[in-house]
Amino acid sequence: MDVKNIFVIGGGGLMGSGIVQCCIEYGFNTTANDIKEEFVQRGVNGITQRMEGKVAKGKITEDKKNEILGNLRTSTDLADAKDADIVIEVIFEDLGLKKDVFSRLDEICPQHTIFASNSSSLPITEMAGFTKRPDRFMGMHFLQPVPVMPLVNGIMGLLTSDETCAVIEKLAKDIGKEVVHWKDGPGHGLQLSPMAYYNEAAKVLSEERGTREDIDKCFKVGLGMPMGPITTLDFMGMDTVLHILHILHEAYGGSQYHPSNLIVQMVKAGLYGNKAGRGFYTYK
Questions:
Q1: Alpha carbons 47 and 42: distance in angstroms, whole number
Q2: pTM exceeds cut of 0.90
Q3: Which of 183, 201, 226 is where one domain is finished?
Q4: Do 108 and 154 belong together in one domain?
Q5: Closest CA to 28 of 58, 73, 91, 75
Q6: How many CB atoms lie within 10 A of CB 82?
Q7: DSSP assignment, residue 145?
Q8: Is residue 233 domain-resident?
Q9: Which of 3, 101, 117, 123 has a Cα-to-Cα distance from 92 of 20 to 30 A?
Q10: CA quadruple 34, 37, 42, 46: dihedral positive or negative?
Q11: What is the mean pLDDT of residues 274-281?
């Protein structure tokens, strides 16, 4: 299938706008969809600022920036997905919300449209069951920050077709990403270990065994990681992290997924991280 039009649901968020940016940079007509216009514009503003930053650094020209932004469309209505070749869903990790979205999309989109979920914890097979096209449904999980991280996780559901897998893999490569494939289940292969790692880092911080800066520095300088675990928690969103931990703890048990009390308290206080302006660190 020749992919031309991509529709990103949740395109106003940090993860969603990052996916939109990658798609438009590589020439795809891409629609950033979200539930409110203010969310959409927040995502568009972030993309525009990042493009302007590239111009300032001499990485692209002003004309190239305008060409890239010319590939971007905006939407607050799922009905706008009627011409999409691929829909990428990037909404909160709630099965009820995803069921509602995919059930509606199934009636809106043409038969050839492939649905891809960015979910990091929910089973793809179960989500595909909300539609009449489980063969054209697959997990396509990106890493934060999306424009920088070169990996995409591909998760095939029980009924995902080889053709669908090939289309998603080609799209990922076309936007500059490497692909790793995982079997379906609660939390794909890559997500299981990092969630335990993020959770344990929060526990170390809550026990005051190290400062947030030193914990991040340890992993960045000592292990060569681009971003430390405390900063990553802020970028993922504490509410999302807590929800994922609950799902994984219910599925697998064990102390590694039992949420850190600090993460629980952060969510109760509304300190979700980057998107809220404050988490472990403060953001403008």
A1: 9
A2: no
A3: 183
A4: yes
A5: 73
A6: 14
A7: S
A8: yes
A9: 3
A10: positive
A11: 94
**Cα 241 to Cα 94: distance, rounded to the nearest angstrom:** 12
**Range(s) of the domain holding residue 254:** 191-274
Mean pLDDT (whole number) for 213-226 = 93
How long, in residues, is the chain? 284
Q: Prior bond to 194 cis, omega within 30?
A: no
**CA 262, CA 119: separation in Å to the nearest integer?**
24
Read off the pLDDT of residues 105-126 as tens digits, 9 standing for 90 and up: 999 999 999 999 999 889 999 9
- Residue range 16-29, pLDDT digits in tens: 999 999 999 999 99
Last residue of a domain, one of 183, 210, 231: 183
Phi and psi angles of residue 139, each rounded to the nearest 5 degrees, phi first: -85, 135
**Alpha helices for the chain (secondary structure H):** 14-25, 37-56, 62-69, 95-108, 124-128, 162-174, 189-206, 212-217, 229-236, 238-252, 261-268
DSSP tag of 281: S
The encoded tokens of residue 169 equal 């893999």
